[in-house]
Amino acid sequence: MKNYFKQIEDRLKKQIRFESIEIVDNSNLHRGHKFFSEDKLHLHLKIKSLELSSISRLKAQKKIMKILEDDLKTKIHAIEISIE
């Protein structure tokens, strides 16, 4: 799992300048939900970035979602994004 989180971090780092990132796996909180799958993750990205905080929240989230587009189709079921 840590290798996968490192891949996410590296992919984001190639296109976004940020001071720090924390990737939290919240999948366990969603067990028992109707569409829960062991194969898909529920992640919370906590990003500290002057670049992202200087644009609208919507634009920042769209930028992140575009970078992780393929993962959202295959490995990630839900993603929460916090930007400071």
Can you describe what's shown?
It contains four helices and three strands; from the N terminus they run H-E-E-H-H-H-E. The radius of gyration is 13 Å and the shape is globular. Helix content is 42%, strand content 26%. A three-stranded mixed beta sheet has the order 1-2-3. The model has no long low-confidence stretch (mean pLDDT 90). It is an alpha+beta fold.
Percent range for helical residues?
40-55%
Q: What is the quaternary state of this protein?
A: single chain
Structural class: alpha+beta
Q: Report strand order across the widest sheet.
A: 1-2-3
> What percent of residues are in strands?
25-35%
- Count of distinct strands: 3
Biggest sheet character: 3 strands, mixed
- Spans of 5+ residues with little confidence (pLDDT < 50)? none
Q: Helix and strand string, N-terminal first?
A: HEEHHHE
Overall mean confidence score, pLDDT: 90
The DSSP helix count reads: 4
The 3D shape can be described as globular
* Amino-to-carboxy terminus distance: 25 Å
Give the C-alpha Rg.
Answer: 13 Å
Write the layout of secondary structure elements.
Blueprint: H1 2-15, E1 20-25, E2 41-48, H2 50-53, H3 57-67, H4 69-74, E3 76-83
Parallel strand pairs: 2-3
Antiparallel strand pairs: 1-2
